[in-house]
Design goal:
With 950 residues, the protein is of the alpha/beta class. It has a domain of 240 residues: Aspartate Aminotransferase, domain 2, CATH 3.40.640. The protein has 31 helices and 26 strands. Helix 8 packs parallel to helix 10. Bound molecules: pyridoxal-5'-phosphate (PLP). Pyridoxal-5'-phosphate binds next to helix 20. This is Glycine dehydrogenase (decarboxylating).
């Protein structure tokens, strides 16, 4: 046996245990199990054609060679991306720490208080700096955040505006080019008309529902938007400002202009450029929009004992509840990056941020002065970090490149220079030298930075920010390290125990896959550098596209969408463009089975489609007769079917090829939701079942960690018909021949984390990938076998097998008033994160162990589930029992009083393994309703909301 093989490290069950597990299930071999699981006619006949597997050490050497192919120039391109310093204490304790990066989205608040607290810091920081009342806990990037604001304004038009069909949205010509491209893509299917122009000439008498401005503008110029905003307000036009977060330290908060929303990116708060992402975007608005806000909001509430607790608030806005009426399709956001950006603000505090902003600004002013001394004209009279020099840009570019420097060249005679936190005096002198050489002059040396020009400006910031204690308490490394650890200890992540989340595939995120992310050769590349400086990246990105195209059995791949839901939207938009290209603009019906994930209908609406829901059978399969009837009924307007495969119930439906055929026969295309791809890789694929496009969740199937709720990557893979429409970017061309303008801000989305799936596939190779799929199916069926005597297992294939996930029915426990939440919370006492609760069936748990969990861990989980069943059986008091009171905290257990009808040991140490490895929930069960009634989503003293109720 080659013990060096990565597959042996990635896959949990040891080879000798596999035999035992197969026996327990009652099959002789893995092949037999797969035979019983997968319907005939969709199995792959050949092994995937991928490069042979390599070991971790070989991969790291290979990665190093690729990294060296990236050229790290000093880059002053700006355009929404600036080099930043990631404080080493944050790099080591959060970015490189599985306690943070392997956590799941904080649906189970009791085991997520650490990251929820960190996200609350992020929201507070954003609300303070923008001067707005509330902020969400991150969106995917600045462009999509701007598009969300446009969508929010469109949805909240006045009755009169709706009646008059007001569809115009004004876009300042100072907007970032990639933001404009994302807005264009979004506006089209909603019927919004973008009008681009100079905000100073805007005609307020015309009918517009909204407007977006950039602050400072893309040119670097700072405009006073007071009068625009107040005139817009009078005309019923809502205004969103896209603002540079660091500039807000020096500039009046946009909230003071009276705007309705402020959006932007927090990348420059310590997050690596990573050739475009991932970075956390922010969205801040007025409290009156709280029910319209896209994405996740963290809010404060109390637990069962009245202690302060944090949780996700107002979830009734979200796609998983509101579906096609949701405020956005956001599911995975950018949690890890938001945590890091928030922690950057905690570490630096208001004084530290002022120091950084001053340094950046003073550098720009000093540079401007020196270049003027050299005889150049600087075009911006007020600016924060960006100056524009009148000069022959071809000539400057030539000299700059020879000196390994990148500027931005907006026109033949303009050079734009954006400075950043990393810029040193030496860097500034190197820039001066480039311009001196171009002018044929002796260079002049800058010795000290001069004072800035903003402090006396009419827009100088006077309002305080980050006054809360958390931003003023952890400024030494020791203090911050302990604060980060204190939060980390409240959270249950994969480094503690298995997180068997159906549909979310919480598999191993191997250290060898993660290590290269810290390499500056990957981290320090701006997304808009000339592509020849990013050769290493292009080998990885092209390599990954090819790998995914092969795995899905399709024709081409786009890595641009930065979440699964964005992939859905992107995929549906390619279908839309395809129909349009054939003169079928009227094809707008999207069939979606009732069991679909909430992002499906929410994304269909974003793509301008009308959702028609099709029924499921009582076995959980698509009702083929109902589907056929609806496909035929809408045959003239059918655009697409969205189908999850294997189904959200974890079953490979045998009718899948018939289903895809019905759709094609009626003129539609088939969108396959690829969240369950972990059941397919190497044994079947979407191409084989007859789909036309799918997204993949690289943060599920392909080993990108969940990050506590992001980052994600949701590439789409398409058949040849749809390939021409894959999205591009206005600054760096990518995608198809007649592409969508842009889905995300960056050309390759979250390029940095694409290293992870690339590594995963390289190290497993075709055989390891297939084996992983088989083992994921084995692990699930093993749990099924162990639990089937104790719980009802819903749905299975025709031969009684589950696929890679299965559903445990908790509804029969209702006779003793036990709800699915009680079992979920009791699992915490046993050291486990709950499986997926109430999706796709209310009152159930969906379990997906993945291939990475060992037999010992599966057994531990099964023992816990079985013990909980026994506790349920022993219940005498329906209101006061082990399940209803779960989770039990240390505070409860050590209290002088103990008023429960069971012992402390039964509460906290019901099984022996807990005695040596106990996870303590930091709060008791959180009160969801209280928090929604008293929305509080910034850090503030607890009394304010506990009192709010009284
Ligand atoms: C996770 C998931 C999605 C959404 O993916 P995100 O990356 O979270 O946006 C869509 N469909 C299904 C079935 C999923 O499980």
């Amino acid at each position: 046996m080659n013990t060096d093989s990565f597959a042996l490290r990635h896959i949990g069950p040891r080879p000798e245990k596999v035999t035992e597990m197969l026996q327990a299930i009652g099959v002789d071999s893995l092949n037999q199990l797969i035979y019983e699981t997968l319907p005939d006619g969709i199995k792959l006949e050949k092994e995937l054609s991928l490069a042979p597997a390599i070991s971790e050490q070989e991969y790291l050497a290979h990665n190093q060679i690729l990294a060296e192919k990236n050229k790290i120039y000093k880059t002053y391109i700006g355009l929404g991306y600036s080099a930043a310093i990631l404080p080493p204490v944050i790099q080591r304790n959060i970015f490189e720490n599985p306690g943070w990066y392997t956590a799941y989205t904080p649906y189970q608040a009791e085991v997520a208080q650490g990251r929820l607290e960190a996200l609350l810091n992020f929201q507070t920081m954003v609300a303070d700096l923008t001067g707005m009342e509330i902020a969400n806990a991150s969106l995917l990037d600045e462009g999509t955040a701007a598009a969300e604001a446009m969508g929010m304004f469109f949805a909240t038009r006045s009755r009169q505006q709706k009646k008059d069909n007001v569809v115009k949205f004004f876009v300042s010509e100072e907007i970032l080019p990639q933001t404009l491209a994302v807005l264009e893509t979004r506006a089209y299917p909603l019927g919004i008309e973008l009008v681009i122009g100079n905000h100073e000439d805007f005609d307020f008498s015309e009918d517009f529902f909204g407007a977006i401005l950039q602050y400072p503008g893309t040119s670097g110029k700072i405009y006073n938007y007071h009068s625009f905003t107040s005139n817009a307000y009078k005309a019923g036009i809502k205004v969103v400002i896209a603002a540079d977060i660091l500039s807000l330290v020096k500039l009046e908060a946009p909230g003071n202009f009276g705007v309705d929303a402020v959006v932007g990116t927090t990348q420059r708060f310590g997050i690596p450029l990573g050739y475009g992402g991932p970075h956390a975007a922010y969205f801040a608005t007025k409290e009156s929009y709280k029910r319209n806000l896209p994405g996740r909001i963290i809010g404060i509430t109390k637990d069962k004992d009245g202690n302060r607790a944090v949780r996700m608030a107002l979830q009734t806005r979200e796609q998983h509840i509101k579906r096609d009426k949701a405020t956005s399709n956001i599911c995975t956001a950018q949690v890890l990056l938001a945590v890091m950006a928030g922690m950057y603000a905690v570490y630096h505090g208001p004084e530290g941020l002022k120091h950084i902003a001053n340094k950046v600004h003073n550098s720009a002013v000093s540079l401007s002065q020196k270049l003027e001394e050299l005889g150049y004209q600087q075009l911006n009279n007020t600016y924060f970090d960006t100056i524009r020099i009148k000069a022959d840009s071809t000539k400057i570019q030539e000299i700059a490149l020879a000196n390994e420097i990148n500027f931005y060249y907006p026109s033949k005679d303009t050079v734009s220079i954006t400075l950043n936190e990393t810029t040193t005096l030496e860097d500034l002198n190197n820039i001066i030298r480039v311009f001196a050489e171009a002018a044929g002059k002796e260079t002049i040396t800058l010795k000290n930075l001069t004072e800035g020009i903003l402090d006396t400006h009419e827009l100088a910031r006077t309002s305080p920010f980050l006054t809360n204690e958390v931003f003023n308490a952890y400024h030494s490394e020791t203090e911050l390290m302990r604060y980060v650890k204190k939060l980390e200890r409240k959270d249950l992540a994969l480094n503690h125990s298995m997180i068997a989340l159906g549909s979310c595939t919480m598999k191993l995120n191997a250290a060898a896959e993660m290590l290269p992310l810290s390499n500056p050769k990957w981290g320090n590349i701006h997304p808009f550098v000339p592509t020849d400086q990013a050769e290493g990246y292009h080998q990885v990105l092209k390599g990954l596209e090819d790998q995914l195209t092969e795995i899905t059995g399709f024709y081409a791949t786009s890595l641009q969408p930065n979440s699964g839901a964005q992939g859905e939207y992107a995929g549906l938009m390619t279908i839309r463009k395809y129909h349009d290209s054939r003169g079928d603009q009227h094809r707008n019906i999207c069939l979606i089975p009732s069991s679909a994930h909430g992002t499906n209908p929410a994304s269909a609406v974003m793509a301008g489609m009308k959702v028609v829901v099709t029924k499921s059978t009582d076995k959980g399969n698509i009702d083929v007769d109902d589907l056929r009837e609806k496909a035929e009924k809408y045959k003239d307007s059918l655009a697409a079917l969205m189908v999850t495969y294997p189904s959200t119930h974890g079953v490979f439906e045998s009718a899948i090829k018939e289903i895809t055929q019905i759709i094609h026969d009626n003129g539609g295309k088939v969108y396959m939701d690829g969240a369950n791809m972990n059941a397919q890789v190497g044994i079947t694929n979407p191409g084989r079942i007859g789909a036309d496009v799918c997204h993949l969740n690289l943060h599920k199937t392909f080993a990108i960690p969940h990050g506590g709720g992001g980052p994600g990557v949701g590439p789409i893979c398409v058949v040849e018909d749809l390939a021409p429409y894959l999205p591009t970017n206005p600054l760096v061309q990518t995608g198809g021949s007649t592409p969508l303008s842009a889905i995300s801000s960056a050309p390759w989305g979250s390029a940095l984390v694409c290293l992870i799936p690339y590594a995963y596939i390289r190290m497993l190779g075709a055989k390891g990938l297939k084996r992983s799929t088989q083992m994921a199916i084995l692990n699930t069926n093993y749990i099924k076998e162990r639990l089937k005597e104790h719980y009802e297992i819903l749905y299975s294939g025709e031969m009684g097998r589950a696929a890679h996930e299965m559903i445990i029915d908790i509804r029969p426990l209702k006779d003793k008033n036990i709800e699915v939440a009680d079992v979920a919370k009791r699992l915490i006492d046993y050291g486990f994160h709950a499986p997926t609760v109430s999706f796709p069936v209310a009152g159930t748990l969906m379990v997906e162990p993945t291939e990475s969990e060992s037999k010992a861990e599966l057994d531990r989980f099964c023992d816990a589930m079985i013990a909980i069943k026994a506790e349920y059986e022993a219940i005498e008091d329906e209101e006061n029992n082990l399940l209803k009171n779960a989770p039990h905290t240390q505070k409860m257990l050590t209290a002088d009083e103990w008023n429960f009808p069971y012992s402390r040991k039964q509460a906290a140490f019901p099984l022996p393994y807990l005695e040596e490895n106990k996870f303590w929930a930091s709060v008791r069960r959180v009160d969801e309703a209280f928090g929604d009634r008293n929305l509080m989503c910034t850090c503030a003293p607890i009394e304010e909301y506990i009192d709010a109720e009284e």
